[in-house]
Specification:
Largest sheet: none
Number of strands: 0
Distance between the termini: 29 Å
């Protein structure tokens, strides 16, 4: 009997490890895909230039990036719905496979329209993967180590973003570079034999059939309040994060009179390294102090560091790097914490759909917010003032967390 139990434990551990590998690899390659067009964009523009003016090319370049983000947001929500309907495993693998296929097709695009179409659907698949992978891990992973491994998973996309630069370094042809879509496609194919379906989802489907009950409604009276709260919490952090990420190098430049190429580069390196460190330790932080206190600390420190960074530095100093690093650590930690927290707010029947909604409704506003910073610069007289105004979203997120004590625990399974 003991031998049988031990063998079952080993088999379960092996299955969990394979699942984590598939999810981590899928997110890593999604990170690469998300920035691959950015690193190759000058080469793509040169090939497709034709008779278009520089202004028209800038518009096309911006449209390509916007379509990817828009596809990510729509995919994040729709794949969540599919994950609740068809199962976590199938939705996970199809989303990985779809962004892999459209990444490959990007390399064969004959014109701008083809590139735009492929980038939209690449984002559509990648956005779905992010939602389904965290939902699946949150359902099947043992409670004792769940937070730690979700924290590990949260650093996969940043590593993928870094690897996009490596692809560009070693592969000069953009068309050949986009053939890296073969890698996620292989992961998706292998995943059909490597991973199992969520037992919670299977149980929930069985109960529905037995008692003929209707599935939970995403926007029912019972779920709507929690859905809005989850969206506010994730959205406020997302808006603040992307506003600062997008405009930090420009703010650094505004503090200096010379070409601050070195300072801008170092600031982004500290931002990236701090984010990776924060995501890596987020699981242990949750295990030590709990989900609610972790969220409070993330929002409070981000708000405080944003004030310190953008309101006390009128000239450049080396202290800015330390302040950026501390801010980035709590940025990174918040992503791991929220990736664990949001799925736990909802019952199994709508978990993927609700998580997809919370993860992505704020992304639509984020795109507008990042653009709006540029307008505020003129009105408020500087990048520091504009970014400080946007840092108030951290205070808004903090207030939401402080006043929702009744839903910070996990939902009944």
């Amino acid at each position: 009997m003991l031998t049988t139990v031990t063998e079952n434990q080993k088999a379960r551990s092996a299955n969990l490890l394979l699942l984590f590998i598939v999810c981590f690899a899928g997110n890593l390659f999604a990170g690469s895909v998300s920035t691959l067009m950015s690193v190759y964009l000058p080469v793509v523009v040169k090939e497709f230039r034709g008779s278009q003016s520089a202004e028209q090319l800038n518009t096309l370049s911006g449209t390509i990036n916007s379509l990817f983000i828009f596809g990510w947001a729509i995919g994040g929500f729709l794949w969540g719905i599919l994950g609740d309907k068809m199962g976590r495993k199938l939705a996970l693998l199809l989303s990985i496979g779809s962004y892999g296929i459209f990444t490959i097709l990007t390399g064969f695009a004959p014109n701008w329209a083809g590139v735009m179409l492929c980038r939209f659907f690449s984002g559509f698949g990648a956005g779905g993967l992010l939602v389904i992978s965290f939902t699946l891990i949150s359902e099947v992973w043992p409670e004792k180590s769940k937070a730690v491994f979700i924290g590990f998973l949260s650093i996969a996309i940043p590593i993928g973003i870094f690897s996009a630069g490596l692809i560009n370094f070693f592969v000069t042809s953009w068309r050949q570079g986009f053939l890296m879509g073969i890698l996620p496609l292989l992961v998706a194919i292998a995943g059909f034999w490597m991973i199992d379906e969520s037992e919670l989802w299977l149980k929930e489907q069985s109960e529905k059939q037995e008692i003929k009950k209707h599935p939970d409604s995403l926007f029912s009276k019972d779920n709507f309040r929690i859905l809005m709260i989850g969206s506010l919490i994730f959205g406020t952090m997302l808006i603040g994060l992307w506003a600062i990420f997008s405009w930090l190098p420009t703010w650094i430049q505004s503090l200096l009179t010379h070409d601050a190429n070195k300072e801008r580069g170092l600031s982004m390196m500290f931002l990236g390294m701090g984010g990776l460190a924060g995501g890596f330790i987020s699981g242990w932080v949750v295990n030590i102090v709990g989900l609610r206190k972790s969220l409070i600390a993330s929002f409070a420190v981000c708000a405080a560091m944003a004030f310190l960074l953008f309101k006390t530095n009128t000239v450049f100093s080396w202290a800015i790097y330390a302040e950026i690093a501390i801010l980035a650590v709590f940025f990174g930690a918040s992503q791991g914490i929220l990736s664990m927290y949001i799925p736990l707010l909802f019952p199994t029947g709508i978990r993927a759909s609700a998580t997809g909604f919370c993860f992505n409704i704020g992304r639509l506003f984020t795109a507008l917010a990042v653009l709006f910073v540029g307008f505020l610069v003129t009105v408020l007289g500087g990048y520091g003032n504009a970014l400080f105004i946007f840092s108030w979203v951290f205070v808004a997120g903090l207030l939401v967390v402080l006043f929702i004590k009744d839903i910070t625990g996990s939902q009944p399974q």
